[in-house]
Every structure is written in structure tokens, then in C-alpha cells.
Amino acid sequence: MELNFTVETKDVLLDMIKRHNKMYRMGTPEISDAEYDAEIELLKTLDPDNEWFKHTEPAFVPETRKRALPIPMKSLNKVKDISELKKWYMSLGLKGNAGVICMPKLDGLSLLYNELTGEAYSRGGIENEGQDCTSHYRASIQCYNPASSFHYTFGEFVINRSDWEQHFHGKRSKFTGDIFKSPRNTAAGLLNRDEPCDYLEHASFFRYGVDESSLHDYNNFHSLVISINKSIFTILLL
Questions:
Q1: pLDDT digits over 135-145, tens only?
Q2: pTM for this one?
Q3: Where does the record place the NAD-dependent DNA ligase adenylation domain (predicted)?
């Protein structure tokens, strides 16, 4: 991995990571996702046992939007190759014939949605606390409610390819004057703003395992699922 920054000490690098993490969670990211991932990878190389990797940094949530989550929302870890996925599988102590269901993690912000009341939450604060995103969800005209028998669903608040290219890519925010950095950062920033805005009409919500039809404009979904399933099948045989 080629890094476009240098650091003098691990402490300086860790301070950079903490700052960039905080700014991202506040909805005002200073760097791209790729740059942040590069910082994390460098810290793993310099200090793989650093305490940073042993806890989940709570997201900043203003008191006016802080809510107790009706059911837990857990954080996710990234895997970049099959060996990491196999290591995770083995760490669970599963038997060789155990089945695992895998789906792609979309590049957006995780939401918990109450299908009965229309309330929406993102993760934030301490354990089992979240951020009320109900009014932001309702401001997105692309977020719809499929016929479902579920009470709660988990999903991803995203900006799809065509909307990103048409409404955000290379353009500046009318609120900050900064150029939109990426679909994920933009989606997070829109949800973390205290008040909903008209940019939200270009965002959408994909429910994991419920409505594949809402995954429009993600052309590689089918091939990605096939690839993941083949990889899992190989792991189960090993």
C-alpha cells in the first residue's frame, strides 16, 4: 500500500486517527475513506496490539438526538481477503459443516429501522445508544417501505452511483463550501447534520436480507454475492 503521508511517532499517528475519526463521526470529515484506511493500516504495521484496535470509539451524538436503541446495533469489522474471513470463522468455534450467510457491506451508514412506527436510528454514543434519524429518513424520497412482516430491519443509508455522479461528484456543499469527498462520507454527513436538508432526497436505504430490489444501480451485487458464496464454500471444505 502506498501512503501519501509520513509520521514521526506512533503517538502522532494515533492522534491523527482519533481526530479524523471524530471529525467523520461529527459529519465533517477531513480526509477520504481511503486515506483513513491507510492510516489504520500503518498503525497496524507499527503497533498491531495498540489499544485503539481493542475498543469501539463511540460516535458523537448531540443530546437532542440521543436515543436508547430498541435492539442492539453492533459495529462491523472489515476483511480484505479470504484468509481474514477464515480466521474469523475459526474464531467462532464453528464446526466444519456449519453454514454461514454472507452479504456485501454497502459503503454507507448503518441504520436500524422500525417498520411499524417509521423510526430510524444510527449507531452512536455509548453501548446501546443511538442517534435519532427519523426526520432525515423521511426527507429522502427514495427511502420507501416494502411490504414486510418484520418489526425491525437493519440496512444501509447510501448514495448510489447515478445520484452521486449527478448531484455530488466534483461539486461543493452549499453549507460548508467543501467538495463532496465520497458517497459514504456524504451520506454520513447528511445524517449527522442536526436538521434534514434537501440533499437527502438523493439518498436511499437498502435493507439487508429483505428487499434486494432497492439495491438499484449497484451493478455488481449479483456477481459479488456469487463470489462470496464460493469463497465461503471453500472455507467450509478446508
A1: 999 998 766 66
A2: 0.65
A3: 70-197
